[in-house]
User: What shape does this take?
Amino acid sequence: MTERSMTDSDLHRSVEAVWRLESTKLVAALVRITRDVGLAEDLAQDALEAALSQWPESGIPDNPAAWLMAVAKRRAIDGFRRRERQDRAYGAIAEGQEDVVAGIETAVDHVEDDVLRLMFICCHPALGDDARRTLTLRLVAGLTTSEIARSFLTSEATIGARITRAKKTLADVDAPTEEPADNERAERLEAVLAVIYLLFNEGYSATAGDDWMRPSLSEEAVRLGRLLIGLVPDDPEVLGLLALMEIQLSRTAARTGPDGSPVLLLDQNRAHWDQLLIRRGLAALERATAIGGTPGPYVLQAEIAACHARARTAEDTDWTRIASLYESLAVITGSAVVELNRAVAVSMAHGPAVALALIDQLAELPELRSYHLLPSVRGDLLSKLGRIDEARLEFERAASLTQNEQERALLLARAADC
Assistant: This one.
């Protein structure tokens, strides 16, 4: 089938796939050019609409990223010409107008710096934690408002308003007009680590949609982590995060079956784990621990991932150490999700009955009431204890809470097995 004979649905899927791959780089480059986060996203959306309008007739171009960038830049120039009150921004572009129109590859060459710069902008201290995470998922992960709303367990209207306020806040403080200075980077480092890990996790286990994973997002997060090491080479938490992501990413090929269905950790064929990524991750972890000091949350999580990576078989896993590491992590973070993970490790080390008592203590925590992994874990423990009817109900409840179609299918299959 030629591109010109594509159906509307085929074309829409193709454009969406291109957008998923290229939107982050496009928005990041446009932020550098326009110095305005809101305008950059608007221009990117204009380019997307142009693609949907023109590609049915012309076909998808050989270099869709450059095509989108060219359209967005032309729209930027036209817009600045029409709005003379934006003299400063117009002057910045007008001085190099020929390069803007003709030098498409220049923007692509600088994309690594652009994306990392965008992450530091998303982590401006004027924004709260929720605004930082939301803006990152929108601009860097390329998620839709509805997808972000599902991940936050809130309404689209709430997320839309949060994005609008965040952009306005950045415009009010003139945040994107220049790169953060060294001291500003240091102040924002913790937040940047958090949003890079958020990006990684959205790729590792997609919040919603038909796919179990979005590997391109996880790979982008790892790339950003490596860039960050260049800026902060001796920070153990930066090294710890990179180690964690590389070890986790090493499992990608083993995490799905031939039909795309999820394969859980203990059932994975470890021969399919990427040993190069594991070696790189373990080396980064070794550098982090050599620096010394009390391990932070990313180093602790990397240690947990390393326990799995070092085990040649699932039966060789040191679950007692993993449970201990989760206990230390829970003390640092106060996270209910960490406590849930600790309960899983406890079940493997000391049996399902001990873990079920821990799970039942977590059941009433507000942050876990709508979290699908709580009934999923509880169902697994009840199944191991022979309480099959109760287990089936828990798996069905977990399936009703997840927004990921592959995960829902897995949970319903486990319910049926009961």
